[in-house]
Amino acid sequence: MPPLPLETWLLLALAALNVLVLLVLVLRRPDHGALAELVRDTAARGERGLRQDIADSARAGRQESAQALAGFQQTLLAQAAEATRTQNAQIDAFAQQLALLQKTLGDTLHQQLQSLSESNARRLAEVRATLETQLAQLQAGNAAKLDEMRRTVDEKLQATLETRLGESFRQVAERLEQVYKGLGEMQTLAQGVGDLKHLLTNVKTRGMFGEAQLAALLEQVFSPEQFAAQVMTRPDSRNAVDFAIRLPGRGEDGTQVWLPIDAKFPNEDYERLLDAQQRADAPAAELAARALEARIRLEARGIADKYVEPPYTTDFAILFLPTEGLYAEVLRRPGLLEALQREHRITIAGPTTLLAMLNALQMGFRTLALEKRSSEVWQVLGAVKTEFLKFGGVLADVKRQTQTVLNTLDKAQTRSNVLQRRLRTVEALPDTPGVALPQPPSAALDEPEHEDGPDA
């Protein structure tokens, strides 16, 4: 239901006012019956009129509402059409402004880009020109430096080459002089070899040569009290072996046991063998080798018979051959060493082999000495421990004295820092001869500085 118009509400208000006036008049008159009748008639007429007025007003309101609604619709349509036209006009204007703004912005950007491109081109040209100028200067400077370096290197190379050549020529001259000296020494040595060969042709001289070499090997390994020369190892014999090594006895009395070593040098058989080998004469070499083998067997049997006498000696002896070549030729004979050890209890040894055997014996002597003197070793270790404890006390004293020296050095550093602070404000004098150093007062130097420590 649509709302009532304003005129209808006014009519209803007037009707209500009439009803109230009538009620007041009725209440004031004494004739209540007539008044009541009047009120009823008035009320009936008012109700009918009111209804009629209300109906008329409703019809008029509906007509007015329809007319107002139609007018409002027309107004809305007109306003909508006007708003559409206005909006279209504004959109067209905005589109025109946007197009104009886009065109203006495009022109501005194009101009700015063009100016930026021109500026970049100018700057690139300036940078290129600057780089080309700097590169040219750098190339010129590098060329000048390279020329200077080349001249310096050439000068140094020339000086070095001259020095090296002079040194090389000097070394070559020294080497040639040494070669000349060596040639002279070789000539002297050749004469000495001839003399040696002449000496070795004598049997007694050869024996002395072998004994001298054996003595040198023994002196190299053992002390003088561990071996002896020209020892008669058998009690009832006057045959003396060249050398014998003292071995500790096995019995309780500790009687020494001798190890006989005798030097042999069968030079004639060995030279015949070498001569046959140089001439490539196999039959003669074989005959010389057999003769050498027979000579070695004979010497081994003689050593066993003359010098081996257990328990005064060991149950074997050593036959020493003074040259490695002779020892190698004996080794080449198949079964010779085994036969000598098995039949005569003789061991063949050359210089190197004998030195190894002597070193092994010396190690055994040392081990035995350590076993016998183990108590002395413990005593020595106890004395060393005592001395080490004393040494610890001495180290403590040294540490204490060192700490005192360090404290003194810290004090000296403090005084040095004080002097440096006071000399900072004094300008240094030029290095001119004859300018004397001013002497500061001693009281100023001895003034204590309580606020500064060693690290000032």
Describe the model.
- The structure is a single chain.
- This protein is mainly alpha-helical.
- The protein has a 5-stranded mixed β-sheet.
- The two termini are 107 Å apart.
- The protein is elongated and about 200 Å long.
- Among the domains are: 1-68; 124-200; 204-374.
- It has helices spanning 6-28, 32-200, 203-221, 267-278, 282-307, 324-332, 336-343, 351-372, 374-423, 442-445, and strands at 227-231, 241-247, 257-263, 317-320, 346-349.
- It has 10 helices and 5 strands.
Indicate the topology.
Elements: H1 6-28, H2 32-200, H3 203-221, E1 227-231, E2 241-247, E3 257-263, H4 267-278, H5 282-307, E4 317-320, H6 324-332, H7 336-343, E5 346-349, H8 351-372, H9 374-423, H10 442-445
Helix pairs in contact: 1-2, 3-8, 4-5
